[in-house]
Design a protein that fits this description.
Number of domains: 2
Shape: elongated
Strand order of the largest sheet: 3-2-5-4
Number of helices: 9
Structural class: alpha+beta
Length: 229
């Protein structure tokens, strides 16, 4: 396999042509085969001596989970719809009454919140039925966030008075803040620990190889390449 790859990379069409070219350099096919093995063997050695020796026990995973729980905390998220009624000082009471009527309609059993938002909302989201999408805790101001976290899922908030007017939100969905279960992150932790092991073991292996100044190809590894060819 290595010899075939070498011939292809150098546009050598046959074994006879290879032998002729090598003869001009005072080499034989066996010489170039060994050189190719010596070049490629370190990859195989690393795979066997490092990659295949990685192991991560359940106890190590559980210990990492217990000691690094900040990594697995879930931030609260909520999916919201909104209706915004703007108000100035000279029309605030009039707009409050309008917002209250809309809130009453939005809380009706058969209410279509998106339709009400398209008809009445003065926010940029009106054309999209008032959809704000999914937001994380901290994305909204304190008043809106409190309502987003306290309003039952599928329900409409109280009328929220803001500097700019009045806000009504509907909580379509919500994920509470908390901690991911171990089983949900077990493979993530395993992969991280094995990657860490790989870097550590590879560093040790390369340091040892450099200190020896000459990496010898053991027969077991050499045979893999000879058999592959």
């Amino acid at each position: 396999m290595l010899l075939d790859q070498f011939k292809k990379a150098n546009n050598i069409e046959s074994d006879a042509e290879l032998e002729q070219l090598l003869a001009q350099e005072g080499m034989r096919v066996a010489d170039i085969r060994r050189r190719l093995i010596e070049q490629e063997a370190p990859r195989e050695i690393i795979s066997v001596e490092v990659g295949n020796r990685l192991a991560c026990s359940d106890a190590e995973i559980e210990e990492y989970y217990e000691n690094n729980q900040d990594q697995f905390k879930i931030t609260a998220e909520y999916t919201l719809g909104e209706i915004v009624i703007l108000a100035e000082d000279d029309n605030r009471e009039e707009q409050r009454e309008l917002a209250a009527r809309i809130l009453e309609q939005a809380r009706a059993v058969d209410a279509d919140f998106a339709a009400l938002a398209k008809e009445h909302s003065q926010a940029g989201t009106a054309g999209n039925g008032g959809e704000l999408g999914t937001l994380k805790a901290g994305d909204l101001n304190a008043t809106l966030e409190k309502a987003a976290l306290q309003t039952p899922i599928g329900s409409v908030s109280d009328l929220l008075e803001m500097d700019y007017g009045f806000h009504i939100i509907r909580v379509a969905d919500r994920r509470e803040a908390g901690l991911q279960e171990l089983e949900a992150v077990r493979e993530e932790i395993r992969n991280y620990l094995e990657e860490t092991q790989y870097v550590e073991k590879l560093t040790v292996f390369l340091k040892k190889a450099r200190s020896e100044a000459n990496i010898q190809v053991r027969p077991g590894y050499e045979d893999r390449y000879i058999q592959a060819d």
